[in-house]
């Protein structure tokens, strides 16, 4: 069936009080606990939407495979997990008040010039420094969340950096030849066609907090974002797939509005779903959210619905595109529109 919808504490433990598993505080149409998996700008927009969906608890499970820019320098020089996507998630969850806006700007502030600090974001350095002082990235993130008045918890999917390696075609005169491309930046920028990705190490130890956040959720979201480098790495971790199987949460995939140059160039909405299933055969999803404007053809919609059924999902078409202030649509999701889409899909799934 298709649905159409045109005061922080002194310790990390006080920041994130335990909630009962699959809390009964969730109503039929509004989740109490939302857990969002992803990274980068896609996760940022999803977390903004989640803040509208629930006044209770938000968990952001963040990929740790970035190897470019400030994050790449930090992981190479200090051996810590890349902090860039973690910083962006923190910025998305800072308080709405004037002070919260200042914290968001401070976390996102990037140094200029040509010296050692050039290109580093202040939030990245805060995470690194507190990790050194407190011993773990999770403790550091919990403390910064308390300091900034963040409305949720930022959880690295693993406590160790991951590497991304892709099988890419089209880099040779013979299109059947597959080449290995390693590194998130290299995968995102490849002129070839990404066929499959894997993470190194192949079976990393997941962050226990990430697994618990999936089990505790009423609503779990996956995507939008860079499909091969921000979304799929989560489902390559066996314990994450097991938690997604066990959780009683409604599981929703939010598809990208457009294919990205490089890693998903030329991908249809249908193919995004097939790639998910290719990388995690046992993955079962309840809902897939697709933008109604970018997928208006009945034939394309039929193809997406058919693909969604292979992962157990129904498709909902919503208006979720942001506008640029001049009435023109952009390639990012509007948090208010996405919130309405998530709530509609959640309520529909709960009533089935």
Automatic annotation (TrEMBL):
Coiled-coil residue spans: none
A GO biological process held by the record: regulation of cell shape
Region (Disordered): 1-31
CDD domains named among the record's database cross-references: YvcK_like
Main location: cytoplasm
Pfam families: CofD
One Gene Ontology term of the molecular function aspect: LPPG:FO 2-phospho-L-lactate transferase activity
GO CC annotation terms, alphabetical: cytoplasm
Localisation per UniProt entry: Cytoplasm
Alphabetical UniProt keywords: Cytoplasm
Xref: InterPro entries: CofD, CofD-like_dom_sf, Gluconeogen_factor
PANTHER family: GLUCONEOGENESIS FACTOR-RELATED, UNCHARACTERIZED PROTEIN YVCK-RELATED
Family of the protein in this entry: Belongs to the gluconeogenesis factor family.
Role this protein plays: Required for morphogenesis under gluconeogenic growth conditions.
HAMAP family named in the record: Gluconeogen_factor
Protein name per Swiss-Prot or TrEMBL: Putative gluconeogenesis factor
